[in-house]
Each structure stands twice: as C-alpha cells, then as structure tokens.
Amino acid sequence: MAIRKAIRKSTAFNQKLLLYAQSKSYNQLRATVMAIAVAGLTAVTVPAFVLVQPAFAREAILMVQRSLQGGNTPKPESKFQTLVNQLASLEVERTMLTAKFSPNHPSVIEISQQISQLHQQFSNIPTENHSQNQIDQIITQALVAKIVKLEIERSQLQVNYHPSAEVIKFTDDQIRNLRRRIVEIAPQNPKNQINPLVKHALETKIAELHRQRNQFAQAYTLDDIEEIFSLEIQLHSLEQRLAIYA
Q1: pLDDT at 90
Q2: pLDDT number for residue 139
Q3: If you write DSSP's letter for every residue of the chain in order, what string do you get?
Q4: Are the C-beta atoms of 44 and 86 separated by less than 8 Å?
C-alpha cells in the first residue's frame, strides 16, 4: 500500500514538473532573463543566466549572442571575453568565501592570486579592444546575478529553517558581501546596478508562486497541504526581501 502511494505521488510530481515546464510562467521567466540580458548587458556571461533552467541555458545564451552581434551565427569568444568571464567567476567565488573566511585564509589568498594573474594577462590585450569600465560592468553583472540566486534560495530555506537559523544568517552574510563588493567596483550609484534586476527577478518568482498557490486553492488533496504551506512561507519571505529592493 505504501509503495503504491509513493508511486502515485512520484507520478503526480512528475506531471507537475511537466506542466510547469510548459507553463506560461516558466516561459515568461525564461523570456524575462533573456530580455534583461539583451537590453541591459554589453556582454554575455554565464552567471547572467542563473534563472534560466538548464535545458534552456544554451539556447538562451546563443539567442542573446546573436542579438548582440546582429547576426545569426555567434562569433567565437575573444580572448578578452574569456579572461573577463573567468575574472567575474573568481570575483563571485572570492566574495562568497569572505562570508566564512578572513582575507588571510589560504582559500581566499589562492583565489586572489588567480585574480591578480588574470589582471596581468589583460596587459597583453590591445587597449582599444577593452576598457576597465567594461571589465567592471561584467563583474558587477555576475555579482548581481549571484545575489538574485541567493535571494530566491533564501526564501526556500525558510521553508525548513527559522529566520534566525545559522544557514539563513550565512546566506544573508553572503548577500551582504556581494553588495559590498559591488559598491567597491561601482561606487557611483550601486543601487542602479543592483536593485532593478533583483527586484524584477523577485517579482517574477512571486508571481509564479502566486499562480501555483491559486491552482491549489481551486482543488487540492490532503497530500498537497504540505506543498501549499511551503508556498506560503516562500511567498512571505520573498515579499519581505522585495521591500528591500523597492
């Protein structure tokens, strides 16, 4: 009996996943991320697509590349693009580590050395092909994308943990450090760099969860109550975080 119930629950879950993959909210989320990238980014970086589902990640990146290049065939990644994408990834990784370790920790020092080596390699690229402003912008985009990902993860953590739990405090520290690093890179007006993208992503996620919640309100079984409760907690958490970026 228990086995049959588990099979039914697994089948129902898979059906929900399939429904979600074909839903308007899913396609809207994918289109939103691609639209933001086309409208607001001067270069395409993998971190900018953290909200795109893996099955569509390559498709999204290629579409944005073609839009930026004005052609149908994406150009090979230049040496500058390769270096700056590696630099952005390391900047995110180092900033995340500083939420747990001091700047003198071996792991942080190792990444800092890799970052220094990449900066040195930029000297071998003709200056007319890049600028420090371009480098800073791409790093900032990667940091903002990580903030978006952590904000949504934080709302999911609150389903199983109290807001004062260490795991949530640690996530808050990571978000705080990412924001500080953005301020260091773009001190002019970092809110213009951070808030619009994070706000839009949170609003999209909230709208998606509200649609799921409304579907359950129309007809649900006792097996769905736990999932409804989970949605309510996530919505409450996301709406609280949205107020920070409004």
Answers
A1: 95
A2: 92
A3: -HHHHHHHHHHHHHHHHHHHHTSHHHHHHHHHHHHHHHHH-SS--GGGGTTS-HHHHHHHHHHHHHHHHTSSSPPPPPHHHHHHHHHHHHHHHHHHHTTTS-TTSHHHHHHHHHHHHHHHHHTTS-GGG--HHHHHHHHHHHHHHHHHHHHHHHHHHTTTS-TTSHHHHHHHHHHHHHHHHHHHH--S-HHHHHHHHHHHHHHHHHHHHHHHHHHHHHS--GGGHHHHHHHHHHHHHHHHHHHHH-
A4: no
Return d(Cα 90, Cα 119) in angstroms, integer.
Answer: 12
C-alpha separations of 7 from 3, 12, 13, 106, 222 in Å: 6, 9, 10, 48, 16
CB-based contact 140:126 (threshold 8 Å): no
Q: Minimal CA–CA distance to 45: which of 85, 10, 82, 72?
A: 85
pTM: 0.65
Phi-psi region of 70 (alpha: psi -120 to 50; beta: other; left: phi over 0): left
Amino acid 36: pLDDT? 42
pLDDT in tens, 65-106: 444 445 555 555 688 888 999 999 999 999 999 999 999 999
Structure tokens at 199: 């706000």
